[in-house]
Amino acid sequence: MVSTIHPRGISVFVFGRELITVSLRAFAMVFVLLASAAVLAAEAGAEPEIEGLLHGMFDKPDAVLTVSPIVVGGGFAIADWTQGEMGGRALLRRKQASWVIMLCAGDGIRSREALRQAGVPQQEAISLERDLAAAESKADPQRVAMFSRFEGMVTMDSTSHRPHGDSHLPK
To answer: Which of 67, 66, 92 is nearest to 78 (CA)?
Structure first.
């Protein structure tokens, strides 16, 4: 294969005896579409990983955690959970190849401002706020009300997955 770029932004590829011309715009569009598809595929695979992490940390024989909905925006996610009469939300971050809990809260992490203060970049904060509101609007209102029962905000140690300070986490 031989490739050249002409001044008008057209790439010429020679495969064997065939000449193929591709504009740089078309190439860029294909690249963006492929990158978007890769991000969507990664986000779709995040839900089972996040659910497994939370179950592994907080399930008890007499009180299994229910995790849903989960919304993902870039390398961040919010997972709503209930366990018995308690409920809350966990803010997670993709760290290398796995998810870690950054903090647990109730209504304190529903807004983009709170997400920004927690370290979520602006675009991801906007996406998470919007997607969480949409996901929770489709859930059982009584269960959604339980997410507010978690009082305060508890940051998590990413190495031990243990909370710092007073915790209303499921025990």
So the answer is: 92
